[in-house]
Design a protein that fits this description.
single chain, about 350 residues, mainly alpha, three-stranded antiparallel beta sheet, 10 helices, globular, disordered C terminus
Length: about 350
């Protein structure tokens, strides 16, 4: 009898969690539907344009909420042209309209171009765009969250010296210990403490931005870690750290490996390519996994508009909830994999020669 009550209690809790997820994802479907109806009118629905619009970058932050007319938060536009620097609000830019500043500007698929007197794009003039786009704004949001979390945890450690962790401190401590004990120490060894700040920053930065991409109110609105420029920057930092940390045995293994001389013509180029291919693999893995997840979720939502039937929405929402649950796992998994491989590559660069390591 007691076992049955416990089982029923667990089933009830699970059903409540599923109902919560379905309710949360019903919100973006309604908002997405309302936004498409308000903006497209009688225009045929094109899922490709809708999906790439949501996962791509933009000069304004579009917000869609149920029962509220969709609106956009304008962001600063910073341009450098032949007439110098120009700063204005993105609210002045609209698709198909010309904005008259120092130059005449038109917005073409979220790209700012210089136009001539007739409003046609002038390909002879270049625009260098340093604007605060949606991805930049979401990156700043992630950084602010990081500062708040670690500032609060640091303050708690100073106030509660020698005491058991409490609140947010108790939640964050196992994650920090996990990165140290299961990522840094096994892969780097005795020199792990030197790289803990980098590994923790990478892990939590990727994790927080992955989770921001799963916020259901803005389907596809946050796609920072699905932007290849961002993953390229993270991988480039890892490339610099690995090669500046490499000891003489690391470089000796690349340029003078202990192999027959006739194999040098093959192995040395392979090792040099390996220097680039390691961070390149990090870049592509993170970018591909996050982007693919967003495309799948948005494609499932788009089924409602492709079939033009509300009857499809229950099945669509259920599949979206399932995919979003997997994406929640992927958010943690990709942060872990990126950090773990970074630690592994650093460990390969700083490891001592076997004889010297034995003496240590």
């Amino acid at each position: 009898m007691e076992k049955r009550l416990i089982l029923n209690s667990k089933i009830l809790k699970l059903s409540r969690i599923c109902a919560l997820f379905i309710a949360l994802w019903a919100i973006p479907v309604m908002a997405f539907s309302q936004g498409k109806t308000a903006s497209d009118g009688n225009k045929p629905y094109d899922p490709k344009d809708a999906i790439f619009e949501h996962i791509g970058d933009a000069h304004s932050w579009h917000v869609s909420l149920p029962l509220v007319k969709p609106f956009a938060i304008p962001l600063p536009v910073i341009l450098y042209t032949d007439k110098g620097i120009e700063i204005f609000s993105s609210s002045n830019l609209h698709e198909g309209e010309v904005y008259h500043g120092k130059n005449d500007y038109v917005l073409v698929k979220d790209k700012i171009k210089i136009a001539d007197e007739t409003g046609t794009v002038d390909a002879t003039k270049k625009v260098y765009d340093f604007s605060i786009t949606r991805n930049v704004a979401s990156m700043w949001l992630g950084m602010i969250i990081l500062f708040i979390i670690f500032g609060s945890v640091s303050s708690s450690y100073k106030k509660r010296v020698g005491k058991a962790p409490k609140g947010l401190q108790s939640f964050m401590e196992p994650l920090v210990v996990f990165v140290r004990d299961d990522v840094a120490i096994p892969n780097i060894g005795v020199k792990h403490s030197k790289y803990m700040a980098l590994l923790l920053t990478l892990f939590f930065f990727i994790l927080i931005n992955n989770l921001l991409g799963l916020i259901p109110i803005f389907p596809g609105g946050f796609n920072l870690t699905g932007n290849i420029a961002v993953t390229l920057s993270l991988s480039f930092i890892v490339l610099l750290v690995i090669n500046f940390s490499g000891n003489k045995y690391y470089w000796k293994h690349i340029f003078t490996p202990e192999i027959p001389l006739w194999l040098y013509i093959i192995m040395v180029p392979v090792e040099l390519i390996g220097i680039i291919s390691k961070p390149f693999a990090l870049m592509i893995r993170l970018f591909a996994n996050i982007t693919a997840g967003h495309i799948i979720v948005l494609s499932l939502i788009s089924l409602i508009f492709i079939f033009k039937s509300i009857a499809v929405s229950p099945a669509s929402v259920v599949f979206v909830v399932f995919m979003d649950t997997i994406e929640l796992l992927v958010a943690f998994l990709q942060a872990y994999i990126f950090t773990m491989l970074t630690a592994l590559f650093i460990g390969m660069a700083v490891q001592e020669h076997h004889g010297e390591q034995h003496e240590i």
